[in-house]
Please model this.
Amino acid sequence: MKESTCHIPIAEYKTIYSVADVEQAMEHTGSKRNESLLAIYEDMKKSGGARFIVKPSSTNGLEDLYESSPNFNEVIDALKKHMALAIDGNEPMQFTPMLLLGEPGLGKTHFAKTVAKVLGTSFEFLSMSSLTAGWILSGASSQWNNSKPGKVASSLITGDFANPLITLDELDKAGGDSRYDPMGSLYALLEHDTAINFKDEFVEVSIDASSILWVATANDESRIPDPIMNRMDVYVIERPDHDGSIRIALSIYRDLLEQHKWVFDAEPNEDVLDCLAEVAPRDMRKLLIDAFGNAKLDKRDYLLPKDLNNRKLSSGKKGKIGF
Model:
C-alpha cells in the first residue's frame, strides 16, 4: 500500500497547450486585427502552457465528509475508490463525470466545493440555468462582435490547475435557442479521448481539457439528454434523516465558528440542533448566521431555539421550525 498518512496533495506540472501553437495562431490573427484575441494569446505566451496538476497522497481527507455530508455516503465511497487507485499509481485523481441528482437544498453544490478543497484543486461554478447558448462553455468565434472565450478555456488559461473541479449546477435547467445547444460542447468535454484536443471557438488553439473533474447537479434527470446521462455516473441524493441532519447542522455550526472570531459555545444545545434538523441543509447556514446575530443582540454567547425563528426559508415559508 502506497498511501501516506498525510493528505496534503502532491502537485506536478502538465502541459495543456503548446506555446508554438499560440504563436502560430497569433501570426494568423495579426492580419485580422482582433485586439482582444491577441491580448489573450499574449497572456497564454507569458504564462506558458504548463499548469499544476494535483495528485492525492491519502484518502484521509475524505473521512470528515462522512460526518458532515452523511447523505452523500455512496458518492464518498466511489471517490475513495478512485482516490485509492490514483495513490497506488502515483497519478492525478480521475473519476467518471458525476451527476448528483436530488431535490433542491440538499447541499449538492457545497459538497462538490468541499471535494475540490479536499483534492487541493480549484473550484469553478457554472449555473446551467443561466445559459442560453453553447458558446458560454466553448466560446464564440472571434469573427463575432464582443465574442470571448468560453468558461472552460478561461478556467484553464487563467487558472493555476490543469484539473480544476467544475460544477455544472442545475444541468437539467439549461435551455435557450435549440440552434445553440448549451450542452453541445459537453458531448466532447465529458469524454476523455475527445477532451484531450478541446478547441475553444474563440481561442482556436488546442487545449487539453481531459483532466477536468466534472460534477453536475440536477433535480430532474428526464430533462437531461440521454447522451449526456450516458457519460456520467448518477448518484441519487436523498434528504438526510433526523440524525444525519443533526450531524450536518453541527458541522455547519463548527465551520461558521472556525471562519469567524465570534465567541459562542463550542456546540449548540440539543433543542437548537433538533430545530435545525427540520430544515434543508441549504437553509441551516442562513438560519445559524441569523441566530448568532440574535443571540449577540440579546447579549448571549449561546443559542436558543427562538434565535432561529426570524428567517424566511428558501421554500418561502416563515422560519417557524417546530417550536
